Amino acid sequence: MFDNLTDKLDKALHVLKGHGSITEVNVAETLKEVRRALLDADVNFKTAKNFTNTVKEKALGQNVLSSLKPGQLMVKLVKDELTELMGGETEGIDLSGSPSIILMSGLQGSGKTTFSGKLAKYLKSKKTKKPLLVACDVYRPAAINQLHVVGEQIGVEVYSEEGNMDPVAISQNAIAHAKQQGHNVVIVDTAGRLAVDEQMMTEIANIHNAIQPNETLFVVDSMTGQDAVNTAKAFNDRLDFDGVVLTKLDGDTRGGAAISIKSVVNKPIKFIGTGEKMDAIDVFHPSRMADRILGMGDVVSLVERAQEQFDEQEARKLQKKIAKNQFGFDDFMSQIQQVKKMGSMKDLLGMIPGAGKALKGVDIDDDAFQGIEAIIQSMTPEERSTPSVINGSRKKRIAKGSGTSVQEVNQLLKQFNQMSKMMKMMQGGGGRKMMQMMKNMR
Predict the structure, then answer these.
(1) Sheet of 157-159, strand order
(2) Cα–Cα dist 377/379, whole Å
(3) What's the CATH code, domain 303-441?
(4) Which one, out of 8, 64, 260, 429, has a CA that is 20 to 30 A from the CA of 248?
(5) Quick one: which of 131, 105, 137 has its CA closest to 118?
(6) Which CATH number fits domain 3-85: 3.40.50.2300, 1.10.443.10, 3.30.1490.20, 1.20.120.140?
(7) What is 100-296's CATH topology?
(8) By mean pLDDT, which of 94-103, 278-287, 294-303, 332-341 is the weakest?
(9) Count of CB atoms within 10 A of residue 279's CB?
(10) Within 10 A of 241 (CB to CB), how many other CB atoms are there?
């Protein structure tokens, strides 16, 4: 996410991050490079120019040049201004109303149907809501089928009407159905449309007027860059939507849409799509995104994701096993499954400060645990619960069964033993011993 922009901003701010003398001249030069980096990322020209002018004014106004750590202060100013540019505060979704009605709008292929499913799953699992998905794309039969497949996948009911070509009537009937069936959120998925298609724009305006949604969201493919911002403006002029959803942020996106859409349409980004899986949805936090763009990571989001997957009961069981020296490969496997639920490995590593830069150009596969899982699955129940029984001949059998080498099996066993020792030390409070062990592992 934003790899190129992060790299260019890092180079632009490199001079100021050092301890050399900082002058008004090299501040101006640095900000010129920052503006160039923003323009390369497809940020609106006016937005990029205003951004660097504001940072320069604040820098000179706050006496950055004469401060104790001018470089750090300058980076903080860029970060704060970037946060402000993307909306400043995190904007929630309006779930008032009985039921709450959410209308999805956007171009064809922007990811509305998939995102509708992601939002339904998010509201069901994290907000304990009972959502209803409504298929109002009457022009593309595959869209109705797709929504039904998505609904089945996430365990959410989908409302559709065969043969009815009136999306206004379908949406109204769906709301009546939701009230009868006790659904407290209705998500209306509409057909993709071009802002220049007057007939289609009138249709979505009619749906909007008929159902009076609590939230109208504009879904936009972030990979379309500056075009996404222009389209958002055209839609907003007609619909006056409440917020923006940026999809496909995990792709090779330059990030311009995320940075300039708020300043152009003055509507907040509420959610981002970060992958193909149904749980690849995040609430948009401007300050956290600014941190990531500047290569500072996003530890808060990482901790939040870990907490979501944390099972207190399982943790207690694990604690007892570690204390009794009974931690086995089955427990190790369940820990791997919890990490996998947190999201793609590349995304998770991008949240660790400095990791993105260190791993630049490294292709991190989401199946990073595949080899480990194959090795563990090739073990017998006895071997998984008591790894000490694994001898030379067993290693050969495990390697053959998992399609790996004996060397890889040995490596996993070594890592498992080291981890078990660390866990045992943490239980016993042996912090100093653990530090020494970590030094030896380097």
Answers:
(1) 157-159, 131-136, 185-190, 100-106, 215-221, 243-247, 269-273, 281-283
(2) 5
(3) 1.10.260.30
(4) 8
(5) 131
(6) 1.20.120.140
(7) Rossmann fold (3.40.50)
(8) 294-303
(9) 18
(10) 23
